[in-house]
Amino acid sequence: MAGGSLYDYIQDDNTPLKYQDTFDYMDQILSAMVYLSEQQIVHRDLAARNCLLEAWVRLRPQPRISDRRGRNQHNPHRRDASGRTAWELPATTKDRHT
């Protein structure tokens, strides 16, 4: 499946996902996330739909950087208007009083 997402590949009944391939994909995704972390970049939208497959069925990470000002550093303790840090899920602060 050239150019498709990992999500589409997983959902396709005509291409069964092999056990070893699952671990290979997880290893590649983890390596990409470690690299982004080392660059102090928070992806904020890691999902199978955002992992693209090349023609030979290897993952090609497509990070989506949320910093619109072009800075490559991220303060993990910075909070938005709702009181969440960039990496927190909205559900985790549902009952938080700020």
Automatic annotation (TrEMBL):
GO process annotations (BP): cell surface receptor protein tyrosine kinase signaling pathway
Protein's organism: Panagrellus redivivus (Microworm)
Annotated spans, Disordered: 63-98
UniProt cross-references to PANTHER family, sorted A to Z: TYROSINE-PROTEIN KINASE RECEPTOR (PTHR24416), TYROSINE-PROTEIN KINASE TRANSMEMBRANE RECEPTOR ROR (PTHR24416:SF611)
Domain (Protein kinase): residue spans on this chain: 1-98
GO cellular component: plasma membrane; receptor complex
Source organism phylogeny: Eukaryota, Metazoa, Ecdysozoa, Nematoda, Chromadorea
Listed name of the protein: Protein kinase domain-containing protein
Superkingdom in the source lineage: Eukaryota
SUPFAM superfamilies: Protein kinase-like (PK-like)
GO molecular function, one term: ATP binding
